Amino acid sequence: MRNILVVEDSPLVLKILEHLFRKESALQPIFCASLGEAQVMLESSASLFFAAIVDLNLPDAPDGEIVDLVMAYQLPCIVLSGSYNEQRRDQMLLKGVVDYVLKESQHSYEYAFRLLHRLESNSQVKILIAEDSEATRHYIRNVLTPHRYQIIDACDGDEALRILKEQPDIDLLLVDHSMPGLSGFDLVKLLRQKMKRHELIILGLSADTKGSLSAMFIKHGADDFLRKPFCPEELNCRVMSTLERRDLMLALKQAAQFDALTGLNNRRAFYQHGQLLFQQAKAGGRDLSVAMLDLDFFKRINDEHGHASGDAALIAFARAFAGAFPDALLGRLGGEEFAMLSQQDAAALSETLDQLRAQCASLKYALGAPPLSFSAGIFQGAPDDLENALHQADMRLYQAKHQGRGRNCWQ
Question: Given phi > 0 = left and psi -120 to 50 = alpha, else beta, which region is 406?
Fold first, then answer.
Protein backbone atom coordinates (compact mmCIF):
# COMPACT_ATOMS: atom_id res chain seq x y z
CA MET A 1 0.00 0.00 0.00
CA ARG A 2 1.37 3.41 -1.06
CA ASN A 3 0.26 6.49 0.88
CA ILE A 4 -0.33 9.52 -1.35
CA LEU A 5 -0.57 13.02 0.14
CA VAL A 6 -3.32 14.98 -1.62
CA VAL A 7 -3.49 18.71 -0.93
CA GLU A 8 -6.58 20.20 -2.58
CA ASP A 9 -9.35 22.56 -1.47
CA SER A 10 -11.82 22.24 -4.36
CA PRO A 11 -14.81 20.00 -3.42
CA LEU A 12 -15.31 19.09 -7.10
CA VAL A 13 -11.69 18.07 -7.66
CA LEU A 14 -11.68 16.16 -4.38
CA LYS A 15 -14.77 14.25 -5.48
CA ILE A 16 -13.08 13.26 -8.75
CA LEU A 17 -9.87 12.23 -6.99
CA GLU A 18 -11.75 10.21 -4.37
CA HIS A 19 -13.56 8.36 -7.15
CA LEU A 20 -10.29 7.51 -8.90
CA PHE A 21 -8.58 6.43 -5.68
CA ARG A 22 -11.42 4.01 -4.92
CA LYS A 23 -10.38 2.12 -8.06
CA GLU A 24 -6.78 1.89 -6.86
CA SER A 25 -6.45 -0.60 -4.04
CA ALA A 26 -2.66 -0.15 -3.93
CA LEU A 27 -2.89 3.63 -3.38
CA GLN A 28 -4.15 5.15 -0.13
CA PRO A 29 -4.89 8.90 -0.22
CA ILE A 30 -4.44 11.19 2.76
CA PHE A 31 -6.36 14.43 2.08
CA CYS A 32 -5.43 17.91 3.29
CA ALA A 33 -7.22 21.12 2.34
CA SER A 34 -4.51 23.68 3.09
CA LEU A 35 -0.79 24.32 3.40
CA GLY A 36 -1.16 24.38 7.18
CA GLU A 37 -2.75 20.94 7.32
CA ALA A 38 -0.13 19.52 4.97
CA GLN A 39 2.68 21.01 7.04
CA VAL A 40 1.41 19.35 10.22
CA MET A 41 1.01 16.04 8.39
CA LEU A 42 4.50 16.13 6.87
CA GLU A 43 6.20 17.21 10.11
CA SER A 44 4.84 14.13 11.85
CA SER A 45 4.58 11.52 9.07
CA ALA A 46 6.59 12.51 5.97
CA SER A 47 8.36 9.15 5.80
CA LEU A 48 5.03 7.35 5.36
CA PHE A 49 4.27 9.02 2.03
CA PHE A 50 5.30 7.76 -1.40
CA ALA A 51 4.32 10.85 -3.43
CA ALA A 52 2.09 13.94 -3.39
CA ILE A 53 -0.58 15.49 -5.61
CA VAL A 54 -0.96 19.18 -4.79
CA ASP A 55 -3.07 22.13 -5.93
CA LEU A 56 -0.84 25.00 -7.03
CA ASN A 57 -3.14 27.68 -5.59
CA LEU A 58 -4.42 27.15 -2.06
CA PRO A 59 -6.20 29.69 0.19
CA ASP A 60 -3.19 29.92 2.50
CA ALA A 61 -0.61 29.34 -0.26
CA PRO A 62 -1.69 31.23 -3.40
CA ASP A 63 1.74 31.29 -5.05
CA GLY A 64 2.66 27.60 -5.07
CA GLU A 65 4.28 27.51 -1.63
CA ILE A 66 2.89 23.99 -1.17
CA VAL A 67 5.30 22.74 -3.85
CA ASP A 68 8.34 24.04 -1.93
CA LEU A 69 7.01 22.43 1.25
CA VAL A 70 6.47 19.01 -0.32
CA MET A 71 9.79 19.02 -2.16
CA ALA A 72 11.64 19.98 1.00
CA TYR A 73 10.71 16.49 2.20
CA GLN A 74 12.00 15.00 -1.10
CA LEU A 75 8.59 13.68 -2.09
CA PRO A 76 7.79 13.28 -5.81
CA CYS A 77 5.30 16.06 -6.47
CA ILE A 78 2.57 16.17 -9.13
CA VAL A 79 1.16 19.69 -9.48
CA LEU A 80 -2.49 20.40 -10.38
CA SER A 81 -3.45 23.82 -11.69
CA GLY A 82 -6.76 25.31 -12.77
CA SER A 83 -5.16 27.75 -15.23
CA TYR A 84 -2.28 27.52 -17.69
CA ASN A 85 0.65 29.85 -17.15
CA GLU A 86 3.71 28.94 -19.22
CA GLN A 87 6.12 30.85 -17.03
CA ARG A 88 4.73 29.23 -13.87
CA ARG A 89 4.83 25.81 -15.55
CA ASP A 90 8.51 26.29 -16.45
CA GLN A 91 9.26 27.37 -12.89
CA MET A 92 7.62 24.27 -11.48
CA LEU A 93 9.42 21.94 -13.85
CA LEU A 94 12.77 23.58 -13.10
CA LYS A 95 12.11 22.97 -9.40
CA GLY A 96 11.91 19.28 -10.20
CA VAL A 97 8.21 18.46 -9.94
CA VAL A 98 7.14 15.24 -11.64
CA ASP A 99 4.70 17.08 -13.91
CA TYR A 100 2.38 20.07 -14.20
CA VAL A 101 -1.19 18.90 -14.92
CA LEU A 102 -4.07 21.17 -15.88
CA LYS A 103 -7.47 20.51 -14.30
CA GLU A 104 -9.12 20.29 -17.69
CA SER A 105 -11.03 17.02 -17.75
CA GLN A 106 -11.29 13.50 -16.36
CA HIS A 107 -8.41 12.59 -18.64
CA SER A 108 -6.14 15.05 -16.81
CA TYR A 109 -6.71 13.35 -13.46
CA GLU A 110 -6.30 9.91 -15.02
CA TYR A 111 -2.97 11.11 -16.42
CA ALA A 112 -1.91 12.09 -12.89
CA PHE A 113 -2.64 8.52 -11.79
CA ARG A 114 -0.61 7.18 -14.72
CA LEU A 115 2.29 9.21 -13.34
CA LEU A 116 1.82 7.67 -9.89
CA HIS A 117 1.91 4.16 -11.34
CA ARG A 118 5.00 4.94 -13.38
CA LEU A 119 6.72 6.30 -10.25
CA GLU A 120 6.18 2.87 -8.69
CA SER A 121 7.87 1.03 -11.54
CA ASN A 122 10.42 3.63 -12.63
CA SER A 123 12.87 2.79 -9.87
CA GLN A 124 13.50 -0.47 -11.74
CA VAL A 125 14.05 1.30 -15.10
CA LYS A 126 17.64 2.02 -16.20
CA ILE A 127 18.19 4.81 -18.71
CA LEU A 128 21.50 5.47 -20.51
CA ILE A 129 22.09 9.00 -21.84
CA ALA A 130 24.64 8.92 -24.70
CA GLU A 131 25.40 12.58 -25.42
CA ASP A 132 28.70 14.42 -25.94
CA SER A 133 27.36 17.72 -24.59
CA GLU A 134 27.76 17.86 -20.82
CA ALA A 135 25.14 20.61 -20.59
CA THR A 136 22.57 18.48 -22.46
CA ARG A 137 23.34 15.44 -20.32
CA HIS A 138 22.87 17.55 -17.20
CA TYR A 139 19.58 18.96 -18.55
CA ILE A 140 18.19 15.50 -19.40
CA ARG A 141 19.25 14.10 -16.03
CA ASN A 142 17.50 16.97 -14.20
CA VAL A 143 14.32 16.39 -16.19
CA LEU A 144 14.23 12.63 -15.63
CA THR A 145 15.46 12.45 -12.02
CA PRO A 146 12.09 13.42 -10.40
CA HIS A 147 10.57 10.35 -12.07
CA ARG A 148 12.90 8.07 -10.07
CA TYR A 149 14.66 6.41 -13.00
CA GLN A 150 18.14 4.94 -12.63
CA ILE A 151 20.22 7.20 -14.88
CA ILE A 152 23.65 6.50 -16.39
CA ASP A 153 25.72 8.90 -18.54
CA ALA A 154 28.00 8.27 -21.51
CA CYS A 155 29.95 11.07 -23.22
CA ASP A 156 30.22 9.35 -26.62
CA GLY A 157 29.08 6.32 -28.62
CA ASP A 158 32.07 4.14 -27.70
CA GLU A 159 31.49 4.62 -23.98
CA ALA A 160 27.77 3.96 -24.46
CA LEU A 161 28.55 0.69 -26.26
CA ARG A 162 30.87 -0.41 -23.46
CA ILE A 163 28.24 0.35 -20.81
CA LEU A 164 25.54 -1.50 -22.77
CA LYS A 165 27.77 -4.58 -22.99
CA GLU A 166 28.53 -4.43 -19.27
CA GLN A 167 24.91 -3.75 -18.25
CA PRO A 168 22.52 -5.71 -20.50
CA ASP A 169 19.59 -4.79 -18.23
CA ILE A 170 19.49 -1.17 -19.45
CA ASP A 171 15.93 -0.46 -20.57
CA LEU A 172 16.18 2.75 -22.58
CA LEU A 173 18.90 4.55 -24.54
CA LEU A 174 18.76 8.29 -25.30
CA VAL A 175 21.37 8.74 -28.04
CA ASP A 176 22.58 11.84 -29.84
CA HIS A 177 23.02 11.71 -33.61
CA SER A 178 26.41 13.39 -33.78
CA MET A 179 29.07 12.23 -31.29
CA PRO A 180 32.86 11.75 -31.42
CA GLY A 181 33.92 8.24 -32.46
CA LEU A 182 30.93 5.96 -32.88
CA SER A 183 28.00 8.07 -34.08
CA GLY A 184 24.44 7.71 -32.87
CA PHE A 185 23.36 6.22 -36.20
CA ASP A 186 26.16 3.65 -36.16
CA LEU A 187 25.47 2.75 -32.54
CA VAL A 188 21.78 2.13 -33.28
CA LYS A 189 22.62 -0.03 -36.32
CA LEU A 190 25.15 -2.02 -34.30
CA LEU A 191 22.72 -2.59 -31.45
CA ARG A 192 19.82 -3.65 -33.67
CA GLN A 193 21.55 -5.55 -36.47
CA LYS A 194 24.65 -7.18 -34.97
CA MET A 195 23.91 -7.34 -31.25
CA LYS A 196 20.18 -8.10 -31.73
CA ARG A 197 19.23 -5.81 -28.83
CA HIS A 198 15.62 -5.61 -29.99
CA GLU A 199 14.25 -5.28 -26.44
CA LEU A 200 16.18 -2.05 -25.80
CA ILE A 201 14.13 1.15 -26.27
CA ILE A 202 16.06 3.74 -28.32
CA LEU A 203 15.19 7.45 -28.56
CA GLY A 204 17.27 9.42 -31.04
CA LEU A 205 18.30 13.04 -30.37
CA SER A 206 19.60 15.72 -32.72
CA ALA A 207 19.83 19.50 -33.13
CA ASP A 208 20.01 19.08 -36.92
CA THR A 209 17.12 20.82 -38.66
CA LYS A 210 16.86 18.33 -41.55
CA GLY A 211 13.38 16.86 -41.59
CA SER A 212 14.60 13.51 -42.91
CA LEU A 213 16.77 12.90 -39.88
CA SER A 214 13.97 11.55 -37.70
CA ALA A 215 12.93 9.10 -40.42
CA MET A 216 16.54 7.97 -40.87
CA PHE A 217 16.91 7.37 -37.15
CA ILE A 218 13.71 5.32 -36.97
CA LYS A 219 14.57 3.36 -40.14
CA HIS A 220 17.87 2.38 -38.54
CA GLY A 221 16.03 0.97 -35.53
CA ALA A 222 15.20 3.82 -33.14
CA ASP A 223 11.76 3.73 -31.49
CA ASP A 224 11.28 7.49 -31.43
CA PHE A 225 13.07 10.77 -32.09
CA LEU A 226 13.39 14.13 -30.34
CA ARG A 227 14.68 17.30 -31.98
CA LYS A 228 16.77 19.55 -29.73
CA PRO A 229 15.97 21.79 -27.99
CA PHE A 230 13.00 20.01 -26.46
CA CYS A 231 10.91 20.98 -23.45
CA PRO A 232 10.89 18.83 -20.27
CA GLU A 233 7.29 17.75 -20.78
CA GLU A 234 8.00 16.44 -24.28
CA LEU A 235 10.94 14.37 -23.07
CA ASN A 236 8.95 12.97 -20.15
CA CYS A 237 5.95 12.13 -22.33
CA ARG A 238 8.08 10.38 -24.97
CA VAL A 239 9.97 8.36 -22.37
CA MET A 240 6.81 7.40 -20.48
CA SER A 241 4.85 6.46 -23.61
CA THR A 242 7.65 4.25 -24.99
CA LEU A 243 8.02 2.50 -21.63
CA GLU A 244 4.26 1.93 -21.47
CA ARG A 245 4.29 0.46 -25.00
CA ARG A 246 7.18 -1.79 -23.97
CA ASP A 247 5.30 -2.95 -20.87
CA LEU A 248 2.19 -3.64 -22.94
CA MET A 249 4.19 -5.75 -25.41
CA LEU A 250 5.78 -7.68 -22.53
CA ALA A 251 2.33 -8.30 -21.05
CA LEU A 252 1.06 -9.57 -24.41
CA LYS A 253 4.10 -11.82 -24.74
CA GLN A 254 3.56 -13.10 -21.20
CA ALA A 255 -0.09 -13.85 -21.96
CA ALA A 256 0.88 -15.67 -25.16
CA GLN A 257 3.51 -17.83 -23.46
CA PHE A 258 2.39 -18.52 -19.90
CA ASP A 259 -0.71 -20.07 -18.40
CA ALA A 260 -2.62 -17.26 -16.68
CA LEU A 261 -3.58 -19.33 -13.62
CA THR A 262 -0.42 -21.26 -12.77
CA GLY A 263 2.33 -19.23 -14.41
CA LEU A 264 3.73 -22.33 -16.13
CA ASN A 265 4.28 -22.53 -19.88
CA ASN A 266 1.02 -22.94 -21.74
CA ARG A 267 0.52 -25.69 -24.34
CA ARG A 268 1.78 -23.58 -27.24
CA ALA A 269 4.93 -22.44 -25.44
CA PHE A 270 5.65 -25.93 -24.08
CA TYR A 271 5.50 -27.42 -27.57
CA GLN A 272 7.58 -24.60 -29.02
CA HIS A 273 10.38 -24.88 -26.44
CA GLY A 274 10.10 -28.67 -26.31
CA GLN A 275 10.67 -29.08 -30.04
CA LEU A 276 13.79 -26.92 -29.79
CA LEU A 277 15.13 -29.03 -26.89
CA PHE A 278 14.42 -32.18 -28.88
CA GLN A 279 16.42 -30.87 -31.83
CA GLN A 280 19.34 -29.94 -29.57
CA ALA A 281 19.32 -33.34 -27.82
CA LYS A 282 19.15 -35.18 -31.14
CA ALA A 283 22.11 -33.22 -32.49
CA GLY A 284 24.08 -34.01 -29.32
CA GLY A 285 23.10 -37.68 -29.18
CA ARG A 286 21.45 -37.35 -25.75
CA ASP A 287 18.35 -39.05 -24.33
CA LEU A 288 15.41 -37.06 -23.03
CA SER A 289 12.63 -37.95 -20.61
CA VAL A 290 9.05 -36.81 -21.05
CA ALA A 291 6.43 -37.00 -18.30
CA MET A 292 2.67 -36.50 -18.34
CA LEU A 293 0.95 -35.73 -15.01
CA ASP A 294 -2.71 -35.55 -14.09
CA LEU A 295 -4.27 -34.53 -10.76
CA ASP A 296 -6.34 -37.39 -9.32
CA PHE A 297 -10.11 -36.91 -8.80
CA PHE A 298 -9.87 -33.26 -9.79
CA LYS A 299 -13.49 -33.16 -10.95
CA ARG A 300 -14.55 -34.14 -7.44
CA ILE A 301 -12.69 -31.14 -6.01
CA ASN A 302 -14.53 -28.80 -8.40
CA ASP A 303 -17.93 -30.45 -7.87
CA GLU A 304 -17.80 -30.80 -4.08
CA HIS A 305 -15.71 -27.77 -3.05
CA GLY A 306 -16.20 -25.29 -5.89
CA HIS A 307 -14.13 -24.10 -8.81
CA ALA A 308 -12.26 -21.62 -6.62
CA SER A 309 -10.91 -24.60 -4.66
CA GLY A 310 -10.03 -26.29 -7.94
CA ASP A 311 -8.09 -23.23 -9.05
CA ALA A 312 -6.30 -23.10 -5.68
CA ALA A 313 -5.36 -26.77 -6.10
CA LEU A 314 -3.89 -26.13 -9.56
CA ILE A 315 -1.93 -23.12 -8.31
CA ALA A 316 -0.58 -25.00 -5.28
CA PHE A 317 0.40 -28.01 -7.38
CA ALA A 318 2.08 -25.88 -10.07
CA ARG A 319 4.15 -24.05 -7.43
CA ALA A 320 5.30 -27.33 -5.88
CA PHE A 321 5.91 -28.85 -9.33
CA ALA A 322 8.14 -25.92 -10.36
CA GLY A 323 10.04 -26.12 -7.07
CA ALA A 324 10.69 -29.85 -7.47
CA PHE A 325 11.99 -29.57 -11.05
CA PRO A 326 13.72 -26.19 -11.40
CA ASP A 327 15.82 -27.29 -14.40
CA ALA A 328 13.09 -29.00 -16.43
CA LEU A 329 10.70 -27.59 -19.03
CA LEU A 330 7.26 -27.59 -17.42
CA GLY A 331 3.85 -26.79 -18.84
CA ARG A 332 0.14 -26.92 -18.15
CA LEU A 333 -1.41 -28.45 -21.24
CA GLY A 334 -4.98 -27.82 -20.13
CA GLY A 335 -7.34 -28.52 -17.23
CA GLU A 336 -5.53 -30.64 -14.63
CA GLU A 337 -3.01 -32.02 -17.17
CA PHE A 338 0.67 -31.10 -16.89
CA ALA A 339 3.79 -32.08 -18.84
CA MET A 340 7.55 -32.10 -18.25
CA LEU A 341 10.64 -32.46 -20.43
CA SER A 342 13.90 -33.27 -18.66
CA GLN A 343 17.44 -34.54 -19.22
CA GLN A 344 17.17 -36.75 -16.11
CA ASP A 345 16.57 -40.45 -16.66
CA ALA A 346 13.19 -42.00 -15.96
CA ALA A 347 14.24 -43.60 -12.65
CA ALA A 348 15.51 -40.28 -11.22
CA LEU A 349 12.37 -38.48 -12.39
CA SER A 350 10.16 -41.11 -10.80
CA GLU A 351 12.00 -40.78 -7.48
CA THR A 352 11.58 -36.98 -7.47
CA LEU A 353 7.92 -37.33 -8.45
CA ASP A 354 7.38 -39.58 -5.44
CA GLN A 355 8.89 -36.88 -3.23
CA LEU A 356 6.63 -34.31 -4.88
CA ARG A 357 3.61 -36.55 -4.29
CA ALA A 358 4.39 -36.72 -0.57
CA GLN A 359 4.73 -32.95 -0.48
CA CYS A 360 1.42 -32.45 -2.32
CA ALA A 361 -0.42 -34.65 0.19
CA SER A 362 0.33 -32.10 2.91
CA LEU A 363 -0.52 -28.95 0.90
CA LYS A 364 -3.37 -26.86 2.33
CA TYR A 365 -5.13 -25.28 -0.62
CA ALA A 366 -8.79 -25.00 0.48
CA LEU A 367 -10.71 -25.52 3.73
CA GLY A 368 -11.97 -29.11 4.01
CA ALA A 369 -10.63 -30.15 0.61
CA PRO A 370 -9.02 -33.61 0.18
CA PRO A 371 -5.23 -34.09 -0.03
CA LEU A 372 -3.76 -33.48 -3.46
CA SER A 373 -2.63 -36.50 -5.43
CA PHE A 374 -1.46 -37.06 -8.99
CA SER A 375 -0.62 -39.84 -11.41
CA ALA A 376 2.32 -39.71 -13.80
CA GLY A 377 3.56 -41.48 -16.90
CA ILE A 378 7.22 -41.22 -17.98
CA PHE A 379 8.85 -42.05 -21.30
CA GLN A 380 12.62 -42.04 -21.81
CA GLY A 381 14.38 -42.56 -25.10
CA ALA A 382 16.42 -41.18 -27.96
CA PRO A 383 14.78 -37.96 -29.12
CA ASP A 384 12.76 -38.36 -32.26
CA ASP A 385 9.48 -36.49 -32.13
CA LEU A 386 7.97 -34.54 -29.20
CA GLU A 387 4.41 -35.47 -30.11
CA ASN A 388 5.25 -39.17 -30.16
CA ALA A 389 7.18 -38.94 -26.87
CA LEU A 390 4.21 -37.21 -25.20
CA HIS A 391 1.92 -39.93 -26.58
CA GLN A 392 4.14 -42.64 -25.08
CA ALA A 393 4.18 -40.81 -21.72
CA ASP A 394 0.39 -40.42 -21.91
CA MET A 395 -0.05 -44.17 -22.44
CA ARG A 396 2.00 -44.80 -19.28
CA LEU A 397 -0.11 -42.20 -17.45
CA TYR A 398 -3.20 -44.18 -18.43
CA GLN A 399 -1.56 -47.31 -16.97
CA ALA A 400 -0.81 -45.47 -13.71
CA LYS A 401 -4.46 -44.46 -13.44
CA HIS A 402 -5.65 -47.95 -14.31
CA GLN A 403 -3.42 -49.40 -11.56
CA GLY A 404 -5.07 -47.22 -8.90
CA ARG A 405 -3.78 -43.65 -9.34
CA GLY A 406 -1.33 -41.84 -7.06
CA ARG A 407 1.67 -43.53 -8.68
CA ASN A 408 4.20 -43.32 -11.54
CA CYS A 409 4.47 -45.68 -14.49
CA TRP A 410 7.68 -45.61 -16.53
CA GLN A 411 8.50 -49.16 -17.62
Answer: left
398 plus 306 within the same structural domain: yes
Q: Rounded CA gap, 114 and 365, in Å? A: 36
Q: Are residues 373 and 272 in the same domain?
A: yes
Distance CA 53, CA 35 (A): 13
Q: Which runs of consecutive H residues, i.e. helices, occur in 11-85?
A: 11-22, 35-45, 65-72
What does the pLDDT look like over 276-335, one tens digit per residue?
998 888 888 888 999 999 999 999 999 999 999 999 999 999 999 999 999 999 999 999
Cα–Cα distance list, 218 to 161, 185, 188, 202, 258 (Å):
19, 10, 9, 9, 31
pLDDT tens, position by position, 351-407: 999 999 999 999 999 888 899 999 999 999 876 788 999 999 999 999 999 999 999
Q: How do strand 27-32 and strand 201-206 relate by DSSP bridges?
A: unpaired
pLDDT digits (tens, 9 = 90+) for 17-51: 999 999 998 999 999 999 999 999 999 999 999 99
- In this structure, what CATH number is given to the domain that contains residue 17? 3.40.50.2300
Range of the domain at 58: 2-120
φ, ψ of residue 336 to 5 degrees: the values are -100, 20
Contacts of 288 (CB under 8 A, 6+ apart): 277, 278, 281, 341, 342, 343, 380, 381, 383, 389
Let me know whether 137 and 240 are in one domain. yes
pTM of the model: 0.72
Per the structure, the count of domains in the chain is: 3
Give the CB-side neighbour count of residue 169, counting CA atoms within 13 A: 5
Three-class SS of residue 378?
A: strand
> Looking at 95, 120, 145, which one is the last position of a domain?
120
